Every structure is written in C-alpha cells, then in structure tokens.
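Posting this for the archive.
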Amino acid sequence: MTTLKIPIFIIVHDRVKVLKKTVASFESQIASPIEIIFHDVASTFPGCLKYLQDMKENGYTVYRSEKNHHHTVFQSINKYLVKHPKCQYYVVTDPDIERRRSEFIKLRKAITKELDAKNADVAVIEEELDED
C-alpha cells in the first residue's frame, strides 16, 4: 500500500530567503508524507529563479505564471489533482507566513485530530516541537 502525500503549494514571488526557511521548516517538522510544490507568479529576482530551478532539478514540481496573477495558482492545483485523483487534502500557503512554534503545535494537534478521525495515516515529529 502506497501512502499518499499531502501536497503543499507554496506561492512564490521573489522572496527566496523566507522561502528557504519555510521549506526547511516543513521538511524538518512534518513527518507525514508531503510533497512541496512551488507556484511562481512571475518572479524576476535571479536568486529566486535559481533556487526554483535547483529545486526543480532536485525533483520538486515548479509551476510558473508569466504574469503576476495569483488566480493561476488554482490552475496549478487543478493540474496536480488531475494527475493525482486520490488526493483528498492539500495546503496552499505563502512563503512568508511564519507561525510561532506554539501556534504550529496547536495547528498540528487540530489537523492530527481531524485526520485521526478519518483514519488517515499521519505522523508529526514531536520531540523537536517544544512550546515557546
């Protein structure tokens, strides 16, 4: 049995420093199977473009809009869902939304409770998440 990954769509526009922090936090704090997907809305900053290219070369999915139209993110989500019809959940976020660790713990508990109620296979690394 293959465990489905929960896709996390990150909307990107030239914010590479916070983007790297966000990706690192997702990958280090979430033990459930996830797939990080980038949707770039017309970035022009060379550092951001290089980071996204590097991530694509490392197997991440990167969608790109030539114009700064955030509604195109929904087109990317639809493309993903067509390719992954068994996907039941997904997350859409900006890279600069940082949560305090204690807020993340509350959110994690609520999500885990919901997924447990649906008998979903979910796990979160707890030892690294101490309350603030």
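The two ends are 38 Å apart (CA to CA). Residues 101-117 form the longest helix (17 residues).
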